[in-house]
Amino acid sequence: MLVLGRKPGEYIVIDDNIIVKVVKSDEGHLRLAIDAPRDIAIVRGELYEEQQKQNKK
Prior knowledge:
Order of helices and strands: EEEH
Structural class: alpha+beta
Strand order of the largest sheet: 1-2-3
Number of strands: 3
Number of helices: 1
């Protein structure tokens, strides 16, 4: 796992077609903007974990 520090307005690029930008950061809360192709699924962690639990049943 790669861990990076970014400030609001800064971003990272993944595989030339996914951009993850920090749009707001305050008091332990972070807001991200993700620009990715429509065929890439983007799922919040808690929903992903729930899906994995359901798939195991």
